[in-house]
Amino acid sequence: MALKTNTKKYLANTNGKFSLKDYSTTYNGHLSKEEGKADLERVKTELSIHQESLYASNSHSLLVIFQAMDAAGKDSAIEHVMSGLNPQGCQVYSFKTPNSEEYEHDYLWRHYKALPERGRIGIHNRSHYENVLVCKVHPEYILNENIPGIDDVKKINKKFWANRYESIRNFEKHLVDNGTTIIKFFLHVSKDEQKQRFLDRIDDKTKNWKFSAGDLKERALWDKYMDAYQQTIKETSTDAAPWYVIPADKKWYARLAISQIIDETLQSMKLKFPELPAEEVAELGTLRQQLLDEV
């Protein structure tokens, strides 16, 4: 049964003037919640089939990147997407603040180590993009990288960020050229919805652990974060490694849209199950008869 949502509408169009204000946070595909959940179950079934062909072919990998403001629903989206996949063929990494060892390398090092192997799906909860998002809002974090010549925040200028965007584009192009398909999701939640979700975390004792005072400090920088996301998506969304801006005020719909995009991406890879040489196929017939002849 065909789904009622058009995933192309979420593809970041960066050919002209790109603005996050042009993308809805509340869109639900004109579906009811019940319809959306039913469609999600159908997509999960398809995902399982296409993942198996990816695993069997062992020629390509898929990297799925999630970025968003706090409480946008990244964790729950990943949970629901994963529920339709075989864990043997998936790798999930949630990136936190770099540790001392990671700071001894360039900022892409730890992300390169976490890339999916051929035949597998890698899901990155936050990613190398933190280095042009949270670090753009808090440029003082860049000083922890000990980059030659960058010993003062004042030296982190437009040229620095332009070079970093270029490095990310080149990094992703290299991955794509070597068999890794990349899709990137920005879960676009409204400030009002984030407020409600923060209140829910405070009011529900089982969710208290998800909330910290630091969340409100970052919320106060909302406009700066939106500017950073907008610039990042504009600079790094390419045909080979596109960004999708997902309406995230309704979690059930965000999960459906994300799952469908992943499924469509796997289909577009046109993967096939390996075919045995003729002599091996012939041997299978002999072995089959051998099994049938067992007493």
TrEMBL record:
<dbReference type="Pfam" id="PF03976">
    <property type="entry name" value="PPK2"/>
</dbReference>
<dbReference type="InterPro" id="IPR016898">
    <property type="entry name" value="Polyphosphate_phosphotransfera"/>
</dbReference>
<feature type="domain" description="Polyphosphate kinase-2-related">
    <location>
        <begin position="31"/>
        <end position="272"/>
    </location>
</feature>
<keyword id="KW-0418">Kinase</keyword>
<dbReference type="InterPro" id="IPR022300">
    <property type="entry name" value="PPK2-rel_1"/>
</dbReference>
<dbReference type="InterPro" id="IPR022488">
    <property type="entry name" value="PPK2-related"/>
</dbReference>
<protein>
    <submittedName>
        <fullName>Polyphosphate kinase 2 family protein</fullName>
    </submittedName>
</protein>
<comment type="similarity">
    <text>Belongs to the polyphosphate kinase 2 (PPK2) family. Class I subfamily.</text>
</comment>
<keyword id="KW-0808">Transferase</keyword>
<dbReference type="GO" id="GO:0006797">
    <property type="term" value="P:polyphosphate metabolic process"/>
</dbReference>
<dbReference type="GO" id="GO:0008976">
    <property type="term" value="F:polyphosphate kinase activity"/>
</dbReference>
<dbReference type="InterPro" id="IPR027417">
    <property type="entry name" value="P-loop_NTPase"/>
</dbReference>
